[in-house]
Amino acid sequence: MLENTALTPQEVAEMLKVAKNTVYELIKRGELNGYKVGKKIRVDLKDVENYKNKTKNNKTIQSIPIKNDSLPSTNIFSQQDSGNVNNFIICGQDVLLDILSRYIELYSPNIRTFRSYVGSYNGLLALYLGKIQVATAHLWDGDSGQYNIPFVRRLVPGIPTIIIHLACRMQGFYVAKGNPKKIQGWEDLKRHDINIINREKGCGTRILLDEHLRLLNIDGKSIKGYNKECFSHLAVASTVARGGANLALGNEKTSLQVKNIDFIPLQKERYELVIKKEDLDKSPFKTIISILRSDEFKSELLGIGGYDLTETGNIIAEL
């Protein structure tokens, strides 16, 4: 069964957005169940999900700081921290944000940058509640065909905001190598011989899928595997590669990291940063814009691949 899928420590690290050594430490402390297969450590997918559920706090959005294992373990979403410009919290899941965080601390060493790996929907909600300084979004509205602007208006009401472009990425289907099911596009989700692995509610990829299902008048519950969720592009791609599903939705960059899958491009998405307008002239935010527009930052992303940086650093909208 899918929940018994065995993961390597590296795959677990990718899912939790932490270093591989942190995974070993969690297993050593008994916080995450692991077992040996010969000399190799393996962790069942269900145990990773159980670990995440145990560490969730229903009152706040959780985050995993990755910059330094010695960072304080206190709740970084406390109201006191959110008002302290030296504790800077960025929501989002793309590695681009890890690189941005490193640049911020390089050019503004007095600022401690924290990363929270939550989806676009919850990130905008946290911005509205004043618990973070920067949200990111790749939320597609099927009625208007627009990215992010309609959702920012609805989820951050009454607060003037600025949307700054980060990058464009290609979203599409992960399928088994050779595409044995001959999957071509969204219409294939109507087929009864297809089973999928889904992303978690609130992330931009899940909302993209649900919007297309709505427009095609497809009930998600009619799709095999619709209610089975993973928390990263890598996790769903790995599931398809191991035969746990015929199809998953994710970005092209991740498909290049996983063996035995093909990528079917479907839609270019806009990945963008959202801040409060009142913060635009404050030092950390000006630093972010300068970094995004710098050749050094763009060159590093070009080296990784998978990003269209044509508009990076441009202010897209003032709402």
From TrEMBL:
Q: What is this protein called?
A: Molybdopterin biosynthesis protein
Which PANTHER family did the record assign? Answer: BLL2305 PROTEIN (PTHR38431)
Positions of the PBP domain: 109-293
Domain of life where this protein originates: Bacteria
Alphabetical list of Gene3D superfamilies matching this protein? Periplasmic binding protein-like II (3.40.190.10)
Query: InterPro entries of this UniProt entry?
Result: HTH_17 (IPR041657), PBP_domain (IPR024370), SinI_DNA-bd (IPR010093)
A Pfam match is: PBP_like
Can you give the residue ranges of the Helix-turn-helix domain? Answer: 7-54
